[in-house]
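[job 4471] stage=fold_predict status=RUNNING
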Amino acid sequence: MIADLWTDIQRRLDLLDVSLKEVGKRGAEYAQAEADYRAALAKKILELRADGMPVTITPDIARGTKHIASLKLDRDCKEALYKAALESINVYKLQIKVLEAQMDREYRS
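[job 4471] inference complete, writing structure tokens
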């Protein structure tokens, strides 16, 4: 039984390693999407201001354009994937702790 528990722990440690690499990748994608969104939004706001649009409504109008809204959606999706990858790390860590506790109980009995 202890050997089976150890095998389960090793499997989850492998999954944890994969998740750690994934969170780095997802984090970089999220950061790039955020940078792309902010740069495009700033450019659009400047364009609208140059066309004489009032300052008070410029940000809302800029965010409502199809291109900017698409970039924001992409950013939000990548943020969700990044947070999911972070959460998977926590899940694997918790599963490992539970298995370690179970292995400890098996060993002591």
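[job 4471] summary: The two ends are 12 Å apart (CA to CA).
[job 4471] exit 0
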